[in-house]
Amino acid sequence: MWTHLLACALLLLPAQALAGAKEKLAALATSGLVLVVDEKGNELVAQNTDRPFVPASVAKIVTAWLAMEVLGADYRFETRFYLDGDRMLYIRGGGDPFLISEELAQLASVLVAAIGQQPLSGIVLDASYYPADIRIPGIEDTDEAYDALNSALAVNFNTIHAVRKGKTVRSAEEQTPITPLAVSQFLARAPQGRSRISLTQDPTVGLHYAGELIAAFIERAGGKVEGKISTGAVPQGLEPVYIHRQSRTLSAILAQLLLGSNNYIANQIFLEIGGHRLGGPVSLEKSLQVANEMLVRHGLAESIQLKEGSGISSGNRFTARGLARFLHLFEPHATLLQSGDGTHFKTGSIPGVRTLAGYADTSKHGRVRFVIALTSNDGAMRFRLLKAIQSEL
Question: What is the mean pLDDT of residues 24-33?
């Protein structure tokens, strides 16, 4: 009898522990969505999981997985340079999301070595890989720097970082030359002091700034640009004199993306998924088609519905169980996520939405997958819930 009672008591302990965990999580956020799944797929906690939710930047996990599957970890974005007989330099953008100043310095040095130091008669920018009217749902009403307009050819995330003092403007970065367009944009739009502005108002503005900055780096590298900067197509039959391959692999870019959560970078990568698989020019429709085909393959098309690749759109909709299943697919890439205290996670924040999803180590159930979504602006609560998951499970 005593042996039988002891066995029954031991069987009840896990159930009692789970009940205690659920009570604690419910006390912290009664209306919050919380799903915790163990390595075998058993649901340890399932609170308010019946309705789809807005994932915000947690959607970037899906974009990262799609990119790794379609492009590969070692994929590198390319920018192509052409030179005609009149020493007109043509630059064809390939959607590189990381053409930052340090990259441009490397690029210019190799380019000048390839074309020589004789003056260029001008620069023609070809951004035809992206349609001129491309727009991402969710960025229409924002001028935040991390929501800059996507482009086939943009530098420094299609933003300008500078310091304005009265009518004087200087670069905020030692590595970035100031250009005439940067000065005029800051005088027209920026407050006094240090700030970063996005180039969202007109695609031609961001493109021209890219041309100015590349020209400045060419001159730093010993070259010279005498003519004007314009836009146009690379002439048929002209072969590239230099193809610049981004120094960062895709996996390195994704690690930066999942840490910094830049929406511009996310959608540059998302657009390349469709362009690479279905051919250019890129389009949001092509990338959504590729994404949906891959999600269908894994039975996730109904539970993970994307409108774009960054999470900025409130039209994105996930289910908790669908995301938990997806996290099983993403687990080989979990180290790309932000980590700390036995967790790997991605946050999401848009007005009225705070999300958190990833992996956590627990003492009783090993590594678990978790999904947290709150319809509030209380970002700290997500992490209180995560701590409770770890301590109670």
Answer: 84
Query: Which pLDDT does position 13 carry in this prediction?
Result: 46
C-alpha 122/C-alpha 215 separation (Å) is 9
pLDDT in tens, 327-359: 999 999 999 999 999 999 999 999 999 999 999
Q: Are 15 and 45 in contact (CB under 8 A)?
A: no
- Which sign, positive or negative, has the C-alpha torsion 145, 146, 147, 153? positive
Contacts of 232 (CB under 8 A, 6+ apart): 90, 124, 125, 126
What confidence tens digit (pLDDT) does each residue in 188-205 have? Answer: 999 999 999 988 667 899
Rounded mean pLDDT, 168-179 = 97
Output DSSP code: residue 342: T
- Distance CA(314)–CA(54), nearest Å, equals 6
- The Cα 370–Cα 212 span in angstroms is 46
Residue 3 pLDDT exceeds 90: no
Q: How far apart are CA 116 and CA 272, in angstroms?
A: 32
Closest CA to 378 of 359, 338, 346, 351: 351
Helix (H) or strand (E) holding 125: strand 122-126
| Beta carbons within 8 Å of 295's beta carbon, 6+ residues apart | 301, 304
Give 25-64 as a DSSP string: HHHH-TT-EEEEE-TT--EEEEES-SS-B--GGGHHHHHH
Instruction: Report the predicted TM-score, pTM, of the whole model to 2 decimal places.
Output: 0.93
Do 217 and 108 contact (CB within 8 A), yes or no?
yes
Residue 209: both structure tokens together: 């700034």
